UniProtKB/TrEMBL annotation:
Domain Mur ligase central: 108-294
Pathway where it operates: Cell wall biogenesis; peptidoglycan biosynthesis
Family named by the database record: Belongs to the MurCDEF family.
An example Gene Ontology biological process: peptidoglycan biosynthetic process
HAMAP family according to UniProt: MurD
Keyword annotations from UniProtKB, A to Z: ATP-binding, Cell cycle, Cell division, Cell shape, Cell wall biogenesis/degradation, Cytoplasm, Ligase, Nucleotide-binding, Peptidoglycan synthesis
Native source species: Hymenobacter crusticola
Listed GO MF terms: ATP binding; tetrahydrofolylpolyglutamate synthase activity; UDP-N-acetylmuramoylalanine-D-glutamate ligase activity
UniProt name for this protein: UDP-N-acetylmuramoylalanine--D-glutamate ligase
Top-level enzyme category: ligase
EC number: 6.3.2.9
Length: 464
């Protein structure tokens, strides 16, 4: 009789895990406390996998030999507590996937920048001709891809939630970009506990593996001391530092230096990032991390330089969406926390018309005040309750106004902007007050820019 695995959660990772478990001969049951999206229900039905939605039937779940938990389910959920009480092993989709592949995994985590870094690393390897797959928090189940297991390499974005309940999973190259307070409600409001969840990425590294980490990140420095790591360490920084034997740093604004010890060559490697379309200081860090990952994987510097120029980032991450009257419009709707907004404001050198606001997640805007003071000409608050933004920035920026309409915000920005300015949507807040999600907010912003651009070009052609 086959072993029984129960999968909790039936979205991308849960359904991928169910399909892999079935392919490996397990008796599979899927349980989701919410409604299952039609696309996933169809996959389960087609595969003949039993499932339930809108409930967790504990009597069935507690008969499992092992349970795969989707990342969105917190430890405090009653179903998880019941499993812990019965001492039934709980693992993540990533843990399950790792058991069934010999492919080399390049895994990337961090509070901010992991999607950009993951997509860029994947792009650098793919352009160099590597047989590489893309998986994880970018929206593609690693487990489902491992059913065919047709790739020699996988580049995998991992959130702290996905790293929870990994035990034996073993990356080849692990990348940790940064650790700043986020999702602390899942970790007992302890930054240390959250940091340790991120550092699980390095827990199983062996001597032939690589650990790439940000030497400029204070929390990483402090917490990393507690992790025993046999791997080759590849720290990186935005600057050359006397206190670190760095494996990568910027020797000029658009030039990376990789000392010979880091890249297995007889000489230091100097590599230009001038062709990269990425904006901002944090993207210089993301780029450096991706370049180091590609070099550790054996990609030649000349191929990296060429591929940097053909990279296009995911939508809603410092994404240029148009120009009106000489002012550039940038969609950074993914900036749903203060740190992400800080990176955006810090990375733009031109005067900024800043559109911000939404559902406040207990934000402390203190770190943004010096940047707002030096760079922001006007703040347009786009949210239902803008009280905290107004209190924080009302006396800091020369002009502040509020609206609950994206189109109005864009029209006002057009009126306030001068040629050479940047209109930046970087909300520092979640989107759920006025929008379905951050993608919806970003799409509406881009659509408003496009609409106003067309109106203006139409006016010009009529007057000609």
């Amino acid at each position: 009789m086959s072993q029984k695995i129960v999968i909790l959660g039936a979205a991308e990772s849960g359904v991928g895990a169910a399909l892999l478990a079935q392919a490996k001969g397990f008796d599979v049951f899927v349980s989701d406390r919410s409604p299952i999206q039609p696309i996933y229900k169809e996959k389960l039905t087609k595969a003949g996998i039993r499932f339930e939605e809108n409930t967790h039937t504990l009597d069935e779940i507690l008969t499992a030999e092992e349970v795969v938990k989707s990342p969105g389910i917190p430890e405090k959920a009653p179903v998880i507590q019941a499993l812990r009480e019965k001492q039934i092993p709980v693992i993540s989709e990533i843990e399950l996937a790792g058991r069934y592949t010999k492919a080399k995994c390049i895994c990337i985590t961090g509070t901010n920048g992991k999607t950009t870094t993951t997509l860029l690393t994947y792009h650098l390897l793919k352009e160099a001709g590597y047989n590489v797959g893309l998986a994880g928090n970018v929206g593609y189940s690693l487990a489902e891809q491992i059913i065919e297991d047709k790739y020699e390499y996988y580049v995998v974005e991992l959130s702290s939630f996905q790293l929870d309940d990994t035990h034996e999973f073993h990356p080849w190259i692990a990348v940790l970009l940064n650790i700043t307070p986020d999702h602390l409600d899942r970790y007992g409001y302890s930054l240390e506990t959250y940091a340790q969840a991120k550092l699980r990425i390095a827990k199983n590294l062996k001597g032939s593996d690589f650990f790439i980490y940000n030497a400029d990140d204070a929390v990483t420095q402090k917490q990393f001391q507690s992790v025993f790591c046999e791997a080759t360490l590849l720290p990186f920084s935005l600057h050359k530092r006397p206190d670190f034997q760095l494996s990568g740093y910027y020797c000029a604004e658009q030039e990376v230096c990789l000392p010979m010890s880091a890249v297995r060559t007889d000489d230091d490697v100097h590599l230009s990032t001038a062709a990269s379309p990425l904006i901002g200081q944090h993207n210089r860090q993301n780029t450096l991390a991706a370049v180091l990952a590609a070099r550790a994987a054996g990609v030649e510097p000349v191929m990296i330089e060429v591929a940097l120029g053909t990279f296009r980032n995911a939508d809603h991450r410092l994404q240029p969406v148009g120009e009106i009257n000489g002012a550039r419009f940038i969609n950074d709707s993914k900036a749903t926390n203060v740190e992400a907004a800080w990176y955006a404001l810090d990375g733009i050198r031109q005067p900024i018309i800043w559109i911000a606001g939404g559902t406040d997640k207990g934000n402390d805007y203190t770190t943004l005040i010096p940047l707002a003071k030096s760079r922001v000409k006007a703040l347009i608050c786009l949210g239902v309750d803008n009280g905290k933004l107004k209190a924080s920035f009302g006396e800091v920026v020369p002009h502040l106004e509020e609206t609950q309409s994206v189109e109005t915000a864009v029209r006002r920005a057009v009126e306030l902007a001068q040629p050479g300015d940047v209109v930046l949507l970087s909300p520092a807040c979640a989107s759920f007050d006025l929008f379905k999600n951050y993608e919806d907010r970003g799409r509406q912003f881009a659509a408003a820019v496009e609409k106003i651009t067309k109106e203006r070009s139409s006016e010009v052609s009529h007057s000609a």
